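seq as requested:
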Amino acid sequence: MRLSKFTRTALATVVCGGTLLTAAMPTQANKDLDKLSKEDANWAMQTKDYNASHFSTMNQINARNVHHLQPVWSFSTGVLNGHEGGPLVVDGIMYVHSPFPNNIFAIDLDDHDKILWEYKPKQNPAARAVACCDVVNRGLAYAPAGKDYPATIFQNQLDGHITALDAKTGKLLWKMENSDIAMGSTLTIAPFVAKDLVIVGSSGAELGVRGYATAYSIKDGKQVWRVYAAGPDEDIKLAKDFNSANPHYGQFGLGLKTWEGDAWKIGGGTNWGWYAFDPDLDMLYYGSGNPAPWNETMRPGDNKWTMTIWGRDINTGEAKFGYQKTPHDEWDYAGVNYMGLSEQMVDGKMTKLLTHPDRNGLVYTLNRENGSLVNAFKIDDTVNWVKKVDLKTGLPIRDPEFSTHMDHEAKGICPSAMGYHNQGIESYDPNKKLFFMGINHICMDWEPFMLPYRAGQFFVGATLNMYPGPKGTLGQVKAMDSVTGEFKWEIQEKFAVWGGTTATAGDLVFYGTLDGYIKALDSKSGKELWKFKLPSGVIGHPITYAHKGIQYVAIYYGVGGWPGVGLVFDLQDPTAGLGAVGAFKELAHYTQQGGGVMVFALGNIRS
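struct tokens:
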């Protein structure tokens, strides 16, 4: 067994790099974090790195020996709701988080039987009542030490606060209120660190929250900028040359003109998914989510700039481009999903790309320098609300049979509101030029109804019935070339693959299943090579790290989230949980609640 040459070098860098990180200037925090993210001993970001590759160059565990993988230790968080995201590992310390009440634990990997420190925040329990789809939390963020602050762990609390903790001691450094739960605005997103900023999104579109993203200073939590998804251009922060390369996407004044009256003020567009960052371009990428309410009749117009892929200047928040994938969304296809950055050949030229598998069942690849659309194709041939995307205009060509307007009986819509892809972080193997994606395969019937807006109350306006898609299962894993749209292989899963994938240079793809397995596939063929039954279902993502020359794989268990909401809250009505209960009615026969992290290594390793 061995680590790759890259990994052995990285391990040596970790050992000797502590002093350098401590002495770093605040403006170079991104460089230090970027460095940590490339050292495979660490897993310092939820997305693994700024590209959101979720890929490790380690190959000690590989396709030939992965069947020898065994559990070596585990840790319970003491919380039973859905565990999304994954732990962080930085310089021999694992940082573990939980869903509400959002406890944090630091574990020294030299002595994993003992908790190094813990942080149990006091927060407003009323947040539970306004949280959509379970009280999940997508993880922590880490910032290396700067001149004016220590190494810091950031956490978003469900009640709308962002907290900064000393990574060595767990001491609270500062705390800021980002969201007002009285208006239904909560926080489930993982914070994102870039340069000397920590970026935070927003949740609550199902309660009419107007979505925004905010940058805070790592040092003291002071707000640096805030940008909205809808409203006046100055609130959205459109650059003077916004969409200059693609004026057909739309440019100025549309955050007001594409809404009726003041509907934009309660129009959604929150962002609770994942960010990516290109340090060379100083650009931040993310997606804004669904408009509110779900009932499309109540909000005529394109509802810009909900459902949009954004490319923004990290320093100012100004939008360089915005591409709206689903104008006037009718299906809750919230476009906040994974943003994967890669460099690939397009028309004979090496091109900076952004690939985004959307809730709407389409995979989009854009030139991330200017937002130009390179490709858009169906993630599965059963997607039916859209016939195709016009690559010249960027607009979807819809099938009116699957519209959800008030006077139409909408049945058999694929995908469901859960999307064929939801919150999971996916992986990209730069050697194979392939993305590996966990998929939901769920369709729905949709019955809209009218309702008034009341602050802090659900503002949806639709009853949903969900069920397995035409292929008969609820989930899939696929290997995909994002430039050509070619799928190399596909496997079926009984339940949705909610948490995403992690790929390695050992020709492996790891992922977890809702019924409680962690699995490893051969990344070349999709063949299942190993699986292990966990104490509860998985809605988070695997990570892999190294400690003292040994490669480990770790994953949260703890069923819940939107697919597990019926199990968590003991719901029986198939339309409850915004339709999830019907789709996952069999889940309780395969797993029950739990909450923790389990760590694996090859069979001759014991700790």
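The first helix runs from residue 5 to 16.
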